[in-house]
Amino acid sequence: MAGPSTPRSREDQKKRKREQNERDGQAKRLRQKTKTAGKANGQKNGNTDADDLRDGALNVLSQLQKNLTDDQIETELVKLGDTESQEAGWQVSLPMGGRMADIDPIFAENEKYLIVTYNTSLQIYSVAESLLIRRIALPVVQNTYAEKSSAPTIVATRQSQLKPDFLWVACSDGRVWRVNWKKGTGVYDEFRTQSQTALDLSVASIEGQKKTTEVLYVSEGKKHAKGEVVAYSGPDFKQPTAEVLFATKQVDQAIHLLRSSPNGKTIVGATKDGLVVGTLTPESEWEFFTFDTTDIICALDIRVTHSKDNSLVLDLIAGGARGAIYFYDDILRKLQNLNGPKSKREALTSRKFHWHRRAVHSVKWSKDGQYMISGGTENVLVLWQMDTGKKDFLPHLSGSIENIVVSLTGASYAIHLDDNSAIVLSTAEMKPSTYISGIQSAARFTSTPKDLLVKRVWSVSDEVRHPVPAALNPAEPSRLYVCTGTGQQSMLAGEIQSAPLLQSFDMESFRSVSKQALARTQPTDVNITSKGNPISEPRITHVSFSQDGRWLATVDDWQPPKRDLEKVAPEAREQFVRERREIYLKFWSATAGEEHFALSSRINSPHVTSRPETVLALAADHTTNRFATLGDDGTARIWQSKTRQQDGIASKDNAGEVLHSWSCTVAVGLGGNVGADALTTTGETTGERSGSLCFSEDGSTLFVAFGHSNDGGIYVIDTKTGEIRSTLENMWKGHIRRLQVLSPYIITLSDDLRVFDVVADELQYGLQLPSGRNATAVKEFSHLAVDRKSRTFAVVVPGGQASQLAVFKPEEPALLCVRRIPHRITSLVSTGSSSGFVAVDDAAQLWSVAEASDPAAVALSRPLEDMQLDGEPVAADVVLDDAIEDEEMASDNEQETEAANGEEMDLDDDDAQLAVINRQKLAELFDAAPAFAMPSVEDMFYKVTGLLATKPLGS
């Protein structure tokens, strides 16, 4: 589209065209609706019907020009939806997964279960099989759509001392819940702390003269107030008795870490510049001691033993924010002696262990007290021998260590890693026996990283700054591929959000299958510069699978951080960064049965002028294996593969597969927008331009939206010849987020939503969308995806820290489904082989949106409790694997009795045998499909009996 001679005349001409098109489109649309309504109602007065349509909808083009508030727009959007049809039709699943909180996991029932605290739920896993047994949602977020600079977060989870089936969960806004994790009956018995704050929680049981009482120690602290340790007790905790045990001398000196002995007679806490030690005297009075430390304490553990004279011995280890670990042996006796005779006074000295480069994230005592275990950002588990200071290492973990837990028997370590995973290690062999992993995409920080408790030369963003590229594989619809990094902190550190890895996640089993580096990474070795800055890694900006799932196309982008350009002249820094920018288009072969992709071709700077230009969009053809890219150089390119040959013979790899190479077959310049360098003549910058593209359903046409905010044009390109067939004006406004095609409709998501009928050459309808207070967030986290199976499309618009999701049909603006998600959606994907949509939010949760009656809909895995597979066997002659060891450990008398019973049974039936069923086999059988898509009862009966049946004995 050639531009006029001057910028002013060009803008005037576009404005006249836009106004004329709006009037024509509105009139044409209203005439069509008037004619249809008149035929249906048998009325001749078309003006009345047009007035009714205009008054009852927000979808007419003229309504797009109204200045409505976000609340008014949301109200109108909800009115468009039919509640009854939503309940019977499309449904949004409960969220699954989440981000593991910085809270110690809990071993339960003799290390049979592992309880992991997430930012929004409690999840109970089987240690033996790594299967999710139960998920208990926690009502953490209350106001789900407003701007929340300080949203409440879970700060502590502790197991009850008197009733191990219960957990105490504390929230930062002072709410405390008691949860029955074994029954999964939900959250109840809630009470609030007296200050309506909570920083940490510790649970103890104190023995009285008549009975043992459970006491909750809560550290509280408001802004501009003193920090306190408050003890809560009561018969049912609905209205507990509160007693302030300790208060700091200064304001804004809260106790952010709190530990107590199991009997509740010793309390240890940490402030920003010291430690607090308290003990219960024989007179039932509390005595507290405070002393300063040389570092901010960010990890704490205590060990309580008794000496030969039966006096209490308190050994304390504390991890500092600068990497040191401080060991205080018998600290309580030394503190008490400070008030005694001079002959007994001892200096409060500590033994210092220093290996970690940054903060010590977690430190714990071993069972026997001979070792301590620590971890931090180095991805290394360190075991310290206390007597000699000798260190043993378990290196190359998949992420930074956040939490370490030693089981009660000392036989296992539970380690929570920064990449949203947890492992259980045996202390004897240091080999993992359990692995738990969720979605590892970038998530919102709910607390300050421990490394930033002291001033650093680098910083970490609290929020996700860019959408997370994701895709579903058409060949394996249950596999979700999400771009991620080497850890939460490494992804959000620095100027640019990094994501060089691709995680493969199985939604049916809800497990991470694999993780592959698609760009340059610095996982563990030398990942910081000489000045202490983390080395920046590339970010994968686009991913897309081919129509048969055999090829994967990715785009990764990297540029040198500005902090490394201190010696470059200020006026040349921006140009220096642009010239050294690295942008790669890569094509990967996805071989069936292989977990990892093989790189087939790499295109350096697929869009380039005098410098590499941003790749704005990547799209796959739905009919054949080819891709299209749109660059900020104003060019659309189509990429196809061809067989790689040498001397006329097809080249093959070691497995005998034919090798392919990818190249550009069609390049189309988009009118006067060709070349970013040309913008300097008009005084415009490339950063103001946006674009998106999509193939038609038959692959014959490529639709490209590209330009500045005032352009609004879509180019219709013939994919064979590269000829621009036509240009559609006034199709989008502002910043174009996404363009999709659902024949014969073109759907654009920009500052508003528009559905255009290409055949009728008219606007079908348009919807005004909430603008939000954060324009950047609205631009980055607005999503559009189409489902060609159900002929629907989904739209996500952010608002505050939440998002609003809606499902439409292109024929009419009635909402099929509308749901307010209490988190910001970072990814929205669909696949051609199954129906529905999958969304990922900034809490690393998965949401599925599907039609309830569609058996081909996308389904997420469910906990075993939801499938009724978490209970005991229902048949007396069925023995699960878990019971085999118990049977072998039976006493001699029991064995004789069982043998006698066995002989009696042999008299009745010589062929009777015990059937052994693996619990995982049952899980795979009942979790093969959602409830509405399960096989018939008869088929399920035969499958279960097939597991029970035993092979006949040989003759």
From TrEMBL:
UniProt KW keywords: Nucleus, Repeat, Ribosome biogenesis, rRNA processing, Transcription, WD repeat
WD repeats: 353-394
Swiss-Prot/TrEMBL GO biological process terms: positive regulation of rRNA processing; positive regulation of transcription by RNA polymerase I; rRNA processing
Residue intervals of the WD repeat-containing protein 75 second beta-propeller domain: 540-820
Pfam families to which the protein is assigned, alphabetical: Beta-prop_WDR75_1st, Beta-prop_WDR75_2nd
Keyword presence, Nucleus: yes
GO-annotated molecular function: RNA binding
Localization (cell): Nucleus, Nucleolus
Record keyword Nucleus present: yes
Basic and acidic residues composition bias: residue spans: 8-27
Region described as Disordered: spans on this chain: 1-53, 888-907
Domain of life: Eukaryota
Assigned GO CC terms: small-subunit processome
Main location: nucleus
Gene3D superfamilies, A to Z: YVTN repeat-like/Quinoprotein amine dehydrogenase (2.130.10.10)
Protein name: WD domain-containing protein
